[in-house]
Amino acid sequence: MEAKIDGILGKMESTSAKVDLYKSSKVKLPMAELDYLKTLEDARDFMNSMVAATNQNRQELADIFGGDCSRIARIRTVLDAVQLSDMNCNDQRVRTCTEACETIEKVLEDMGLGWCLKKAKDEEKVSLVRRRSSIDREAALKAAQQLEAQQAAAVLVEVTETDAEKPPKKASKAADLWAQCCDEERVLACTEPTELHALEREATASRSGKIGNWMIWMVHRAHLDDPSLSKFDFTNLKMPDGNLEPRVSPKLAVAMESNSHIEHLLMGCTNLQDQEAAILAVSLRANRTLKVLNIDTNAIQPLTLESIANGTSVNQALSELRCNNCASGRLVTEAFLRALKSNPSLCKLGYPVTDAYFRGEIDKQLTRNNDAARKRRLEEKKRREAEGDTSPAAAPAGYPKPAPKAAPKAEPKAEPASEVDKPETKEKEPAKADAKAQAEAVPASAEPEAVKPVEKPDDPAEAAAEAKEPEAKVEAEAVPASTEPEAVKAVEKLDDPAEAAPETKEPEAKVAAKVAEPAEAALPGMVEAPVQSQVSATLRGYLYKKSPSARLLKSWDWRYFVLHEGRLMWWRRDRDLPSEEVLGQADPAGCKGFVNLKLSSANVVPDKTNPMIFALVPAGGAWKEGSLKDMSDASRAFEFDCTSSAHSREEWMKALGA
């Protein structure tokens, strides 16, 4: 056991040194951080196993981490010293390893080793500062470069000796194509997409013989953000390794960070290496245009695939992701499940899931995301139809705009009137049937002028009512197609002589209010609410909430929060959220807790050490009666973590502080 933890500690210190060395390298830093996070995972699992074994044999933990407390002090020093990039700073392994380390420290303090632990921490901090001084840093960097050069030379010598023993073998066709003289200087000299368009003919013609020219040309188009390049397809085309040709896969991975026109990135079976995939994971966080990503059948490791899943949760534009025949694991599956919950636009996921529980959860979330996308499409369609029908240049004043396909839509306008007239006396039915026949016989182009005198020619009372209310009828007829039922009712009520008089007094504003009824509320999990519901101050999404009475190894709960009319409420999952009508109740069904900010004012305090954590503290030192669901602790401060949330910390703090 001691040899195992010593090996883990050695790897932690060496990988943390690489993270510090390569912090200015955009290519080497992601791989160094992934190696470091893997050692944190091993250290966390070892410490958790020791805590579980403490119940049976407390002496074993004291033998490994006790004594001079140097091992636990080394772990704590490395955790405090390493500063990760934005891509991995919120990785769960950092938090869980820190919590496991705190648990071991508390156990040692209970044993009476608190003074030894403090002394060991101070010594390790001094040693770390000495190791990372400027002189040592330069020496370590040179040593790392020398080690890499020696390893490359050893591999080259081994390959040379092996080739000398074997008979000469003919080079592969792909190697011949890349060895040919290519004309990439002309491509790389272009600084505008229009200059690259002039070389399109040559590049396309050389694809069959000099595929390297064509690949460099395509990647340079992505680098220059060519507006005409919306689909980037390298499917089944073997790219060269990034260390041999940096102008293809590494350049493409970096270019996707700032590209704003590529919507389909298809790189299935393209020899995409783990190092370039890690850079692509960073680019996904900043990209706001990519909708489809295909990286099937590539040499991608589980840690890198997990980083891609985390980047997908931030990229709210991505709707389809395919990564079949790549590495998999439980952590990767959990990362994809979090991505589906954080990104409601992600509706298609190509990833093999063997665990039955995660298979069911991912299928449920995909169903919710597809329903949300369908509702957004319907709302967008209705909005466009409404804007098209009410445009300023529609038609002469008082008449609806005749759309290109208005002929079949215009004819049924006289039919609803005959359906409503059915409950009337039998004496009027023949006259209405004749009126309907005459209305259908009128051409579509002359319908606005011809329908009015034909509909009710024999009823003087209704004719007088229509004469007194021309504006109300015109307003009802100009209603968009999406709200036609309400408009028809407003017109049909004029057919009854008893109801004609009160209807004539109805103002135009009331008719317009009927037309502009709000659409249904947004689904849970949507990042942005529809346009019709923007008048509401509701903000919703997942957050980590610190539990006041949780166990030491699990002190954060993943909850779904809703900020509605000055109250912050939370449920266990978004599927537990009741209907929108009951959110205003004193205690909605299934609600795990709430904070009423109308009864008690609160201060929103950001955490100084972690950019994802903030706290909600009562302004007067205590919450007023009724402000919390559980008033057992009236002075409680609520802590929240925005990691993997659909909204940033600034958005939550701004909404809570409004």
What does this structure look like?
- It is found in: Cytoplasm, Cytoskeleton.
- The chain has 658 residues and is α/β, with parallel strands linked by helices.
- It has four domains: 2-132; 173-373, Alpha-Beta Horseshoe (Leucine-rich repeat, LRR (right-handed beta-alpha superhelix)); 406-515, no CATH class; 536-657, PH-domain like.
- The chain has 27 helices and twelve strands.
- It has helices spanning 2-21, 28-54, 58-65, 70-81, 92-110, 114-131, 134-165, 173-179, 184-188, 193-198, 200-205, 211-223, 249-255, 274-286, 302-314, 330-342, 356-389, 406-410, 415-420, 429-441, 447-455, 460-468, 470-477, 484-492, 497-504, 508-515, 649-657; strands at 231-233, 264-266, 292-294, 320-322, 348-350, 539-551, 554-564, 567-571, 593-596, 602-606, 613-618, 638-641.
- It is globular, with a radius of gyration of 34 Å.
- It starts with a helix and ends with a helix.
- Mean pLDDT is 73; it is low at 168-182 and 390-536.
CATH architecture of the largest domain: Alpha-Beta Horseshoe
Ranges with pLDDT <50 over ≥5 residues?
168-182, 390-536
Q: Which whole number gives the mean pLDDT?
A: 73
Structural class, by secondary structure, is alpha/beta
Number of strands: 12
CATH class of the largest domain: Alpha Beta
CATH fold-level topology of the largest domain? Leucine-rich repeat, LRR (right-handed beta-alpha superhelix)
Strand content: 5-15%
Output the CATH homologous superfamily of the largest domain: Ribonuclease Inhibitor
Largest sheet: 7 strands, antiparallel
What is the count of structural domains?
A: 4
Count of alpha and pi helical runs: 27
Q: In angstroms, what separates the terminal alpha carbons?
A: 54 Å
Overall shape: it is: globular
Proportion of helical residues: 40-55%
